[in-house]
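Human: Here is a favour to ask of a fellow structure person. Comparing notes only helps if you start from a blank page. I am asking you to supply a protein in sequence and structure-token form. Write it directly below this note and I will take it from there.

Assistant:
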Amino acid sequence: MTVISPRYGILLAAAALLTTAGCGLGAELDREADPERTGAHAVEAPPPMEVPAPGPSGPGAPPDPTATEGCPESGVRVTTGMVNVAMGLRAMPVTLTNCGTGEQRVNGYPDVRVRDVERRPMDVTVLKGPGPITTLDDPGPHPVALKPGESARSVFVWRYSAVEASTLRGSGVYVEIAPAAGAERRTVVPEGGLDIGETGLLGTTAWEKVTD
């Protein structure tokens, strides 16, 4: 039986996101893993940890996102993909799907707020664009029209920062995402969380229509 090494698994993950988010991310992941193009690989930062199910929320906390099923009243559904890693660089695709009956339009960057395991807002600076975190290609703001069933995608990128495994301090467990500023945010729970630290930068790419 062939045993697949953790390193090979990471490369497979990077290849998967390359298919969904464009060649720019794949190239950047390659540079992170082997900046000198020597063929050797440095030791990567720890992979995203498994986030246990948090306890009940406190007064005034956002509703449990797992309690919402079907299509929201806004007519858009937000989902997150697997977090991909390459040394200290993290990248996560975010998909906005028109699950309603009418056309939806977006133009620009998602509006994002990050909360910790206790649903308290974290001190995270959300950037319009992936720089200075990485050189990932960004399509920039442009009109995107989504017919029912169609989707747009953004890629979130950040740098790994130490997270306390026992308390999940520094981990963004809940991520509130809206198509644009002023629109209704939807809460998602990315698998493994955002190991972004107590203070950090979160880069986003502009919404781009999914054509694959």
